[in-house]
Amino acid sequence: MRRSFALPRVLGHALGLLASLSLPMAVQAYSCPPPGQWFQPGGERLDSAALFAELAERDVVLLGEQHDRMDHHRWQLHTLAGLHALRPDMVIGLEMLPREAQPALDAWVAGELDEAEFLAASHWRSAWGFDPGLYLPILHFARLNQVPLKAINVTPELRGRLAGNGWEAVPEDERFGITAPAEALPDYRERLAAVHAQHPSAGDEESLERFIAAQLVWDRAMAAGLAEAAAEGALTVGLIGQGHLQYEHGVPHQLDDLGVEAHATLLPWAVEEGCEPPPEGLAQAVFTLAETPRALQPPMQLGVYLMPGERGVAIHGVVEGSVAEQAGLEEGDIVLRAAGEALTRPADLTHLVQRQPPGTLLPLEVERNGERREILARFPPRDDGNGTP
User: Where, if anywhere, are coiled coils annotated (predicted)?
Assistant: First the structure.
C-alpha cells in the first residue's frame, strides 16, 4: 500500500437514489468561483498540478457523478487523462456493470468488439439503463490507451439476496468473495433514512433496515472490486454515483475497512447551485462546472431499471422523482408496448425514450398483476437557460 493522506419494493428504489442526493449548503458569504477550477471543500482554490501529483500517489481515486449529466462524464474523462499522464499503470473501475460483464470489458479493451457488440455482450442497457453515449468517450479512452476496465458492481438479484437473506445464506463463490460490509456510519444512516422517508411506500423500521442493508451491499461490492485492482499495484480510479462517495460515508468507509486507506474522493460542483461553497468534508477536492449548455443535455430518461421478460420488458426498479414514478409505474410492471410498438427487449424501450421530445407524452401498455392498463409517461419540457420552458 502507498502512504495514506491527510427489499422488497423499497429495495428496488435504492437503485440510483444516492447518485443525485441534494447537498446541505454552508451559510456564509461566498463569491461565485469561475468554472474550471479545483477547490478544497470549505477551503481555498487548489493548484491542479500539485493536486494531481498528490493524487498519483494514492491507491484509489474516486470520481463521483450524476449518471445522466454529460458534463460530469466530460470532467471524469479530463481527470482520467490527467492522472494517466502521471500514472499510466491505471485501472478504471465501473459502477455501471456487474462482475458478470467482465469478459465483455476485456474484449472491448482488446479491440475485439465494436460498440454495438460491446453493448450487447455487456448487457449494458438492461444492467445500467443510462445512455451508453454518456460513457463511450471514457470507454474509448480506455481502449486507446489500453487501460483495463473493471466491473465492480453486482446484479440487483445478488444485492437483494445479500440484503434480504443475509451474507451467510449466500455461498462465498456466488458473491465473488465479497465480504460483509462494515456498519454504516451514523451520519450515513441519517442520510439514508432521509432518502428512504421520501418514498411513499417507505414502510416501517424493518423496511428502512433492508434499504440500508442494500446500500451497504452496493458500497461494499464496489469497494471490494476497487481493492482487488489496487492490490495489483495500479492506480485504481472508480467512476461511481456521487451519493456513494460524499463525506467519505459509503465506498470510502468500506475501503477503510478493507485496509485501503490511501484513497481520495473528487466530485464535480456546479457553479449554478446558488453560488454556495461546497460543504467542508464533502470530498478532498471539487471541480467547478459551468451550467450545462442545452446542446449538451442528455436525452430523455424514463427512470426505470429493466430486465428482459417473457412478454415485453420487466421493471425491477424505479428512480425516485423520475418520469416513471410520476406516471405511476411500479417495480414488477411488465411494459408490453410503447407508442404502439411491441417491446421484446429493454433496449427497445430505451431507444424509444431517448427519441422522445421534451414536453411530450409517451403512451405505455403495462401489465400489472395480470391486468393490462395504459399509462402515460409525461416528459418535462427543457429549460431554455433563462428559467422558462
Answer: none
pLDDT at 368: 92
Boundary-marking domain end, from 294, 325, 356:
294
Helix ranges (DSSP H) in the chain: 8-13, 48-55, 70-86, 102-109, 115-122, 124-127, 136-145, 156-165, 186-197, 205-230, 251-257, 323-327, 346-354
Listed residues 262, 294, 326: the one ending a domain: 294
Q: What is the CATH number of the domain that holds 353?
A: 2.30.42.10
Does residue 2 belong to any structural domain of this protein? no
Q: How many domains does the chain have?
A: 2
Q: Can you give the residue range of the structural domain that contains 362? A: 304-378
The pTM of this model reads 0.73
Query: What crossing angle do the helices spanning 186-197 and 205-230 adopt, rounded to 10°?
Result: 130
State the chain's maximal CA–CA distance in angstroms.
61
Q: What pLDDT was estimated at residue 68?
A: 82
Per-residue cell: 322:
423520475
Quickly state the pLDDT bin for 13 (edges 50, 70, 90).
very low
Buried b (16+ CB within 10 A) or exposed e, 176-197: eebeebbebeeebbebbeebbe
C-beta separation of 207 from 8 below 8 A: yes
Classify residue 318 as exposed, middle or buried by CB count within 10 Å of its CB (0-12, 13-18, 19+).
Answer: buried
Bridging pattern class, strands 263-270 and 60-65 = parallel
Confidence of residue 273 (pLDDT cuts 50, 70, 90): low
Q: Give per-residue pLDDT as tens, 65-96.
A: 998 889 999 999 999 999 999 999 999 999 99
Q: Is the pLDDT of residue 110 over 90?
A: yes
